[in-house]
Amino acid sequence: MKHKEFYTLFSLFVFFLILFGIAKIRVADLREELNYRLRVSAAPLPPSILKALAGEFKGVVADYLLLEAASFLGGNLEPDEREWGMVAHLLEQSSILDPYFKQTYVIAQGILPWHAEKYDETITILERSNRHRYWDWRPGFFIGFNHFYFYKDHSAASAALMEASLVPGAPPTLATWASRLASKVGQYQSAIDFLAGMYESTEDEHQKRLLKKRMTAVQDAYRLQQAVDQFSDQFGRLPHSLDELLDFGLILEIPDNPYNRPYTLSDDGRVDF
User: Where would you find the membrane-spanning parts of this chain (predicted)?
Assistant: First the structure.
């Protein structure tokens, strides 16, 4: 009886082991197929040749390239650097063939800067959409956000937002953010408002977590900056460190930075994070 149970269990083990092996081979085959399709679709063709080959079917080919990129990402949870480069190239080609198609820049903005750190490639696609979709304020908004969030270039962010704010139908808050970013005064509050607006407009949970982390850091830095300014007004000098704010009772504690590094005070009295 014991021998029979052993053979039954052993047979089941072998059966499931074979199933696992078949599944693993199938996954590898599917991945290789997706990689092959991606390599073929993302052939490095110059824009002029790409347009000539597409002919009168530019819109159809653009949709196909976009679908290829989306299909690859849907079946591949962890693309490597080379694969991300090909995805970015597919989106670029789709944008070249049909710069009026909204979904191309939406997918590019939602994926490339956040998951692949393809900031320049994203800006290129957004700028093309911004030129052709002159009635749409969103490409300009995303350009401004990327300059603010990823490049930390407040001047470029302000210029892009100001331009986007002039598009009919654009939210009036764009002009407010642009003006605040243009000057150091109000920079923290502008950043908080900007990040909150982006947080509310996105549905991607990964992006939401990143934005929430940045909002927390900026809000804490803002409170510390207010305490530094109060110290300067009271004592006619800058504090030697943030700890001095604790000593004088201007803050109850120095908050933990969500980026796992300490908040610091620069020589000119600015709180950095």
Answer: 6-27
CA proximity to 118, closest of 155, 78, 159, 89: 89
d(CA 104, CA 81): 21
Q: Is 98 helix (H, G, I), strand (E, B) or coil?
A: coil
Cα dihedral sign, 73-76-81-82:
negative
pTM higher than the cut 0.85: no
CA–CA separation, 142 and 202 (whole Å): 12
DSSP-derived secondary structure letter, 168: T
In angstroms, rounded to a whole number, what is the distance separating the alpha carbons of residues 208 and 215? Answer: 10
Pairing of strands 271-272, 264-265: antiparallel
Helix axis angle, 138-149 to 154-165, nearest 10°: 170
E strand or H helix at 206: helix 205-235
d(CA 28, CA 121): 29
The whole-angstrom separation of Cα 163 and Cα 175 is 9
Are 69 and 35 spatial neighbours (Cβ–Cβ below 8 Å)? no
